Amino acid sequence: MLKILFVKKKFLSQELAKESLDMVLAGVDLDLKISLLFMDDAVFHLMKSESSSAYHVLTISEIEKIYVAQESLQARNLTMADLIMPVKIVSMAQVVEVVSLYDVVM
Amino acid sequence: MITPSYAILITVSPLEKASEDAFQFIQTVLNQGQKIKCIFFYQDGVYHGNRLIYLENAELIERWQKLSDNHNLDLILCSASAARRGVMDAAHAAYFGKDCENLAKGFRIAGLTVWYEALCSSDELQVFGDLN
Predict the structure, then answer these.
(1) What ipTM describes this predicted complex?
(2) pLDDT (tens digit, 9 = 90+) per residue, B42-86?
(3) How close is the nearest chain B Cα to the Cα of A103, in Å?
(4) What predicted TM-score, i.e. pTM, was given to this entire model?
(5) How far apart are CA B2 and CA B4, in angstroms?
(6) Which residues of B are identified as catalytic?
(7) Cβ–Cβ of B132/A27 closer than 8 Å?
(8) DSSP per residue, A38-71
(9) How many angstroms separate the Cα of A68 from the Cα of each of A20, A23, A25, A59?
(10) Which residues lie below 8 Å from residue B115, measured CB to CB, with a gap of 6+?
């Protein structure tokens, strides 16, 4: 079965955030192995304080793994404690390794 | 020699450079006798299927329809993206209570399941534009 990694980099409007999850959640519904990597401003979507974020649905979705780039968190003065759920924090150096684990990266 | 088959994802409007790149890539692939399983228009990519778009160079839109005719290719618009951007066939217009349809010839509207079926049965994925 295909292992798919979606890389999210932008902090989107509510409507586009919802849309950006369409393909992710459709894959989950089809029982595909779906993981997400958050980098740059996309990490804001995972903040507890962004209570209207469409991304909060991830806490109840069957996503395989959620990775967050350490440098992206640090640059925004965020830590794991600010996020809606436990995630795997990876350094930019490890990102290359993470990406290599997946058949499809988009 | 086994030639790879492609799933193509286009996320930009037909006005963008990446749309031109996509068209050229697809032509090259077809000329080389390789297979394209699916061309899926997602997010702003669905504007390719809006027949009301007016461009001085009408060819920018019409060439997609010709491509579909000549190679029997399915040009698929994501139904959720299309609804958000007002690209509708008669059935979707009726469903969403809209008074007209505007889907260009050669395109059809379908769900993401169709995309995943194509992706899972292709050897290569090629994305044109950013995926939000």
Answers:
(1) 0.90
(2) 999 999 999 999 988 888 888 999 998 999 898 999 999 999 999
(3) 10
(4) 0.93
(5) 7
(6) 78
(7) no
(8) E-GGGGGGGBTT-TT-GGGGGGGS--S-EEEEHH
(9) 17, 19, 19, 15
(10) A23, A26, B7, B9, B38, B40, B42, B76, B78
